[in-house]
Amino acid sequence: MITPFYHQISSRIILNFTRDLSLMLSANLLLIDCLRMLQNQTDNPHFQIIIEDIILQLNLGNSFHKALQMYPGYFNQYYLNLVEVGEMTGKLSEMLLQIYLQLEKISELKRKLYQAMTYPLLVVLVAILSLSFIIYFVIPTFSGLLADFNTNLPWITRSLLQFSSVLL
Q1: Which of 15, 114, 128, 154 has its CA 20 to 30 A from that of 76?
Q2: Could you tell me the domains of the chain?
């Protein structure tokens, strides 16, 4: 087994691989032929090596799901279970299509989650930057001005001035 580089293969590559393999198998092509075509089509050299290893495992007599089990960083248990069911029932292309649809839904949910989290994170970042600007630049400017008044300041103002002076 070849040691994979998990960080170098995106989930989009696995998604496209699953979709394309499903389409090819539904056209009644042989699994090994499909894998060879996909290996030649992928631009990711690490994924080409993984597909090559899967082809080798198939040639050695292992089942497709056993070959995929060697790469748990790319093919989760759900994926493996559905591939195994597809192999046992002779409906591998249909199972791969189901996997693809599920992975596509998960990918879409992740994309929406990232979009939903972008605005709150941006607001928090702007708030932190604004507060930092006030503490480091505005308060020290007013500190000297307030000291010239020779008056007793409210405790919150004194605390804020003291906090700002500690940070500087």
Answers
A1: 114
A2: 6-114 (1.20.81.30), 116-167 (no CATH)
